[in-house]
Amino acid sequence: MMDFGRLITAMITPFDEQGEINWDATSDLIDYLIEEQKSDSLVVSGTTGESPTLSDEEKINLFSFVVEKVAGRCKIIAGTGSNNTRHSIHLTREAERVGADGVLLVVPYYNKPNQEGMYRHFEAIARSSSLPVMLYNVPGRTAASLTAETTLRLAQIRNIVAIKECASLEQVTQITAAAPGGFKVYSGDDASGLPAMAVGAYGIVSVASHVVGSEMKRMIEAFTGGRPDRAAALHQSLFPVFKGLFTCPNPVAVKYALELKGIAAGSVRLPLVAPTEQEADFIRSLF
User: Fold this and answer.
1) Is the separation of the CB atoms in 104 and 134 below 8 Å?
2) Coil, strand, or helix at residue 93?
3) Whole-angstrom distance, CA of residue 8 vs CA of residue 214
4) I want to staple 22 with a disulfide (CB 3.0 to 4.6 A). Which of 14, 51, 61, 167 is the partner?
5) Count of CB atoms situated within 10 Å of the CB of 77
6) For residues 185 and 201, what is the distance between their CA atoms, to the nearest angstrom?
């Protein structure tokens, strides 16, 4: 079974002044996330990577570039999910072709399939590839939620190995209590990461790890090492950052925070916009 590690960073996509992918900045960011922020895996072209505004060509080029740059130092999870099953199969096959270690598949958004539709969607994509699949349930964005029951049904498929769960701690508990051996649950919400691990989650798919990843790794290691009081103290100290980075639409705040740290991230593509002056002041106050 694929082990993506405990701390997975949902990586931003750096842009230049013309709004195109900044490949030099992407290269530097990868080194920084692995070496300084201790990421075990990187999600490439997820929502934090502004996938809705990336073309298929850009996504595939990103997958290939990151795989080559990482050179085995961490795992690469390609964001290939969409609300179009055939399109997701195409991107998943391309991710496999260029050497990604796994794929992240979001619950179909906007068309709001029922549970059987979701099951068949994920089943079709998983069976189209040998890559390990991480499901992604984020009802706040998709307007539809994968139930614990459907998740457990999908977990029986050989290469569906994990879920990034954002619905609730109750759902994390239900899945971890009944999942087959080797199936891992990740919190998709930084602020709920440690509480999710307390009820059985394996790790965190994080945005905040761009800027406080090394501290988050210490928090996770304290928890898994039998020091829950230390883990709780670290969680409490990081909590303002966990919440503060979502004061404006993601990844607006984290890109600005990276720029404050001297890490080239660039701005965001429309329809997202740069932080207002008030938002920028607040983000600066977090650090």
Assistant:
1) yes
2) helix
3) 12
4) 14
5) 32
6) 5
Of the candidates 58, 108, 64, the residue with the CA atom closest to the CA atom of residue 82: 108
Task: Spell out the SS3 assignment of 233-258.
Answer: HHHHHHHHHHHHCCCCCCCHHHHHHH
Joined together, the tokens standing for residue 154 give 């999908």
Structure tokens at 272: 């997202």
Q: What counts of helices (H) and strands (E) characterise the chain?
A: 12, 8
Give φ, ψ of 42 to 5 degrees.
-125, 130
Binding site for pyruvate, by residue number, is 48, 205
Tokens of residue 182, six digits = 């080797």
Ramachandran sector of residue 266 (left: φ over 0; alpha: ψ -120 to 50; beta: rest): left
Active-site entry in 164, 184, 217, 255:
164
Active site (annotated) includes residue 119: no
DSSP labels, 150-197: HHHHHTTSTTEEEEEE-S-HHHHHHHHHHPPTT-EEEES-GGGHHHHH
Could you tell me how many residues make up the chain? 287
Across 32-54, average pLDDT: 98
pLDDT of 1 over the 90 cut: no
pLDDT over threshold 90, residue 81: yes
Q: Which residue has the tokens 């994990």?
A: 162
Taking a C-beta distance cutoff of 8 angstroms, is the pair 186, 8 a contact?
yes
Annotation says 110 is catalytic? no
In the chain, pLDDT over 70 holds for what percent of residues? 100
The answer on pLDDT for 240 being more than 80 is yes
